[in-house]
Each structure stands twice: as structure tokens, then as C-alpha cells.
Amino acid sequence: MQWTLVIPLKPLERAKSRLTATTGDTLRPGLALAFAQDTVAAALACPAVRDVVVVTDDGLAGRELAALGARIVRDEPAGGLNAALAHGTAAVRTGRPQSAVAALNADLPALRPMELARVLDRAAPFPRSFLADAAGIGTTLLSAAPGSELRPAFGTASRSRHAASGAVELPLEGVDSVRQDVDTGDDLRAALALGVGPRTATAAARLLIAD
Ligand SMILES: Nc1nc2c(ncn2[C@@H]2O[C@H](COP(=O)(O)OP(=O)(O)OP(=O)(O)O)[C@@H](O)[C@H]2O)c(=O)[nH]1
Ligand SMILES: C=C(OP(=O)(O)O)C(=O)O
User: Fold this and answer.
1) How confident is the model at residue 211 (pLDDT cuts 50, 70, 90)?
2) What is the phi-psi region of residue 115: left when phi exceeds 0, alpha when psi lies from -120 to 50, beta otherwise?
């Protein structure tokens, strides 16, 4: 099965606010963009991915991610993360109603294409499924096979909400790079230990210089 990934991204000025203690306000937007670039580049390199749609109103991020090969959809509902995901999914299925879609966070800078392929292949038999984040509280990926609505319930403690909504939880082994979202300084250190993509490596090096 070939998937369309829907990746939501807040305007960079507001993105990754919990990282401010680590980055300060000057470097934070650039780091948020680097995370999104490395996430999108790895997703597009995944053999199970047909295409990538990014839902964002950020002009710079839109241009940079389109240059990597993503399709950009404006965040027309302006109603938060789940509304943006529903809108992106609807935009995909207007063109191809039988698309297999998966929502993926934009803050997975260590993402490895073959680990993402493993997750998506495991997701294929289920109408809806999800992967818990590294902290075990949230969600980094939610899938909807053809014929199923995505019904996203991201936000605080989304792992339990997605389970309660009937989505099947996917196995956690061997897919650390798909689970390692970066919300805090500790998360960033964990992602750097796994090995991040080139844009995040450059942006993180600037943090050390600024220290
Ligand atoms: N398009 C869009 N994406 C969003 C919106 N809210 C959150 N996101 C994205 O959804 C994912 C998870 O969002 P959050 O954890 O709420 O925000 P964050 O920027 O990652 O981090 P914090 O500011 O620290 O909460 C990230 O990829 C965000 O950029 C929204 O209103 N619209
Ligand atoms: C929105 C979520 O992610 P974060 O950990 O970035 O808040 C989530 O896990 O549902």
C-alpha cells in the first residue's frame, strides 16, 4: 500500500514553544523549520510513501518544503491541529477518494525512511491505527486506510484518546526514529543521539555556538 502523509506545521514564529528554554527565541523558528525539512525529506525517501502534503500558513516553510517535493495546503480552518489535519485529508481525498492517508508530526528530525516504511506496512491491514510517541503519552502517526475517516485526536495525552477511538496501536519495537518527537531540550538530546537529518544537525550546531 502506498500512503499519502499529511503533516501539520504551525507558523514558525509560534512553533516549538516548549523548546524556548533550550533555544531562546532567536534560534527556535529556524530549528522548527529544520525539523520539518528533515521530517519531510525522510518521508519522501520512504518507499511506502506516495506523496506528502504539508498543512501550513507559514510562507517560508511552505516554500522550503515545496522545494523538497511536498504539496502545500493552506490551514484554511485556522482551528488548531486536528482541524488542520482533517482539512489536509479532505484536500487529498477530493482528488483521490481512495487514498490511504496518515498524519505525521513535523518534529521528527531523526526520522529514517525504512523505519517509517515498517510502521506504514504494519498499519496497512487496519482501518485506523497509530504509533505512540517516545514519551509514551502522545502520538506521532495516525493512519486511515481507504474507506476510513482519519478522526484525529492529537494534543495532550493523545495515545489514550486514539486507543479509545478504536484505532489499533502499532508495535513500538525497532521504530524509535518514528517515535522521537522533539518538544523539549531532553527530546532534542535524544534525537541527536539517534542521529538527526542534515538541516537539524546544522541548526543544532548553531545552538552550541550561541551557548
Ligand atoms: N497547520 C497547523 N499545524 C499545527 C497547529 N497546531 C499544531 N500544529 C502542528 O502539529 C504538531 C504538534 O503540535 P504542538 O505540539 O501543538 O506544537 P509544537 O509547535 O510542536 O510545540 P509547542 O509549541 O511546544 O506546543 C506540530 O507539527 C505543529 O507544528 C495548527 O493550528 N495548524
Ligand atoms: C500533539 C501531539 O504531540 P506533541 O507531543 O508535539 O504535543 C500529540 O502527541 O498528540
Assistant:
1) low
2) alpha
CA angle 47, 51, 52 (to 5 degrees): 115
pLDDT at 68: 98
Label residues 153-176 b or e (16+ Cβ within 10 Å = b): bbeeebbebbeeeebeebeeeebb
pTM over the 0.90 mark: yes
Provide the domain limits for residue 19.
3-210
Domain with 66 in it: what CATH number?
3.90.550.10
CA 19 to ligand 1: nearest atom = 24
Counting the structural domains of the chain, the total is 1
Using CA atoms, how far residue 170 sits from 5, 60, 104, in Å, is 17, 34, 14
Which stretch of DSSP H or E encloses residue 62?
Answer: helix 59-68
Report the residue count for the chain: 211
Q: Is the CB of 10 under 6 A from ligand 1?
A: yes
Rounded to an integer, what distance in angstroms lies between the CA atom of residue 71 and that of residue 168?
A: 28
Q: Supply the ipTM of this predicted assembly.
A: 0.97
Cell of 90: 479532505
Asked if the model's pLDDT at residue 210 lies above 70, the reply is no
Annotated binding residues for phosphoenolpyruvate, written as ranges, equal: 139, 155, 158
- Cell numbers representing residue 205 in the block: 550546531
